[in-house]
């Protein structure tokens, strides 16, 4: 059985090499690949698939997250800004463990993966969380049956 598998793989590699080497001859006769060569917008489903795959691969990658023992550790890890200051908690010697561990890890991953600051990573995290919970960007529910009253 292993010989069959290796034979098929070997034949595939030979065929791929021959096609690559002779691509100048047959490329003009090949049909266009949809969404790669055709003009126009890329469908939303392809973006969703791409986003899902990148999130899945990022979750498999190892990225060392700093261990949080309090607000001082969160500040040292870069999880603060002028809009989200931890200085008051640190000065008051707050005994709590610091920021929520799961949210903290996700914000830290966004900061490293997209190379953005803490405020932007926190905004992206909240937008993603709103989307998962069925809340629009303006804070209104996406449920068609929701009833809202003006003041």
Automatic annotation (TrEMBL):
It holds the Pfam family DUF2015. Keywords: Signal. InterPro entries: DUF2015. It comes from the Eukaryota. Belongs to the UPF0357 family. This is Uncharacterized protein.
